[in-house]
Design a protein that fits this description.
187 residues, alpha/beta, 7 helices, 7 strands, 39% helix, globular, binds 5-O-phosphono-beta-D-ribofuranosylamine
Length: 187
Amino acid sequence: MTRVAILASGTGSNAGALIDYFSGDSEVNISVVGSNRKAAGVFDIAEKAGIKSFRFSKDEMDSGKLLKDLKSQKVDWVLLCGFLLKIPSDILMGYKDRILNIHPSLLPKHGGKGMYGMNVHKAVQDSGSNESGLTIHKVSENYDEGDIVFQASVDISHCTSAEEIASKVLALEHQYYPRIAEAMIKD
Ligand code: GRF
């Protein structure tokens, strides 16, 4: 059984989609959920699903404690879902090529520091583009710069607000993140 940890700072809807998708899977188990934010939606989602969760501080993440905890829980893969802190190098080395992130734009467009949440969708709207989408990528030392694993685009030519773009992209994220994560993990 491959043990997976989800790290999520925000609403947690992608975490929920992953948890639903893998429930009952005989090879992949979402074993633990972690967040740096007390109010993160993922805590409720994990509780309802009966999945262990824990909170950690940025200091604990940067000082090696998070890596130790992940290893002691025998975590094999880490999936980031709206996790806003930069992953430190010890975790990148400890989980080389086994940390994925999802980003709500077609990277390299609209990525990098400060490009999260509605900032991304507003930037897409301001760019006047007719399409947006999602990117699933490996996590590296710089925000949104790791190797791209998968992208899917969506027509936003009829969207009149950044919120509308956000909801179209989010639906696509829920559809693809579990399937692409599964393909990577089971590869
Ligand atoms: C998603 O749009 C994801 O692409 C980005 O952060 C957002 C998280 O949303 N990294 P949620 O917390 O999964 O609802």
